[in-house]
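tl;dr need the bound structure. longer version: we got a ligand (guanosine-5'-monophosphate) that a collaborator sent over and nobodys looked at where it sits. i said id run it. heres the input, straight from their email, havent touched it
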Amino acid sequence: MKAHTISTLIPEQELKERIAQIAGQISSDYAGGKVKLLCVLKGGVFFACELAKLITVPVTIDFMQISSYGSGTMSSKKAVIRKEPDDVLEGQNVIVVEDIVDTGYTLAALKEYLESKKPESVKTCVLLDKPDRREADVCADYRGFEIPNVFVVGFGLDYDGQYRNLPYVGALDFDGITA
Ligand code: 5GP
């Protein structure tokens, strides 16, 4: 692992406050109904758990995993579903919970996959958004924070498997150069 430092980008308290706002919005949007949070492993876990605790309509949680790879050019990426959801999604109000949307290919692939499962509705909820990096035409329905084009860790996001458990979001910096 290259030498690096981490500087706080979004403190714990700001995360808490914003997540409470999003949970409030979801609770009011789905008032009288129920939602299934579909957490995208592994990065979405911390965000999904915090949201789930604060949503006031009935909530169920399921998990899936997806990886996307470049296909030779930067103009497209191939997504591979690593783990399918366990539950039947047909007729459900699904909210996909992701850590971050970057190029947008992962979210685009997830939406396409989920539509084939015939849910009642699909919405997307991301903690972080890096709009400067967007290549696929996607826009999250619920979005925590817009961030600049830096590599971030913490609150579910990793660097080489580490730092997911940081309670804040930090920017990774290699030798004074932000990644
Ligand atoms: P996208 O398909 O939108 O380019 O990529 C989304 C995935 O890339 C995220 O779920 C996450 O795994 C990874 N990713 C994108 N930006 C970052 C970042 O700044 N830090 C970390 N740790 N992962 C990122």
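gonna send this back to them w/ a short note. The first helix runs from residue 12 to 29.
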